[in-house]
Amino acid sequence: MGEHTGRYVHVAEWFTARSYAVLGFDQLGHGRTDGKRGHTDSYEDLLEGIDRMLEEADRRFPGKPIFLWGHSMGGNLTLNYALRRKPDVAGVVVLSPWLKLAFDPPALTVIAARLLEKVYPKFTNDRPFDPTHLTSDPEMLVKLREDRRGHGMITARFFFGVHRAGRWALEHAQELALPLLLMQGDADRVTSIAASRKFAERAGSLCTFREWPGFRHELHNERGREDVFRVIDDWSRERLRQG
């Protein structure tokens, strides 16, 4: 939420240096896409972005195994995509998913937003942006503060679409049919690690769950991010060996 592909260049560089091809895209209302910032007409429109990315991956690299990777709001989408679409991929990697938030928004704000979703779905809340909730790495904090494409805007329709999808994924975790690597830092103040634990428990043996002590919301931007990348690399290669 509020991100764009430019924030993942260092991730792509690490993995392409190890023989992976990496594709990403800016979601609706984000990055270089057109339209209102932080808005989508429907949650289904967000899932269709993944459809198009997989079609492009198949066009560019026919016959190659594919892993889906999603973080935070993207983790919500990736889990829902895996559960609802059951794509033909080798595995799924999800970091710090928005299944539930790590905090409870004020009750009156939620009530007002529910009403606005029905009468004015494009109503926008510009959330305060605190990069220290995302990473403890000083270098990454500077980059986040200087990022001009990132934003804190989210509309009522967008929020409740993702909110409901997170609850749906938790309720249907036992239907997981793909290998999943699910990871989160125990110092995450953005999304709920308790919800991720619950998802992993319900998903069963197909889900490998790992907690990162002291890591904040963006595992891929933390001081020990290369350790995170190595775990993903090892897990992915093991999936390919098991075939």
TrEMBL record:
Pfam families per the UniProt record, alphabetical: Hydrolase_4
Residue stretches making up the Serine aminopeptidase S33 domain: 1-223
PANTHER family named in the record: PHOSPHOLIPASE-RELATED
Record's protein name: Lysophospholipase
Taxonomic source organism: Cohnella candidum
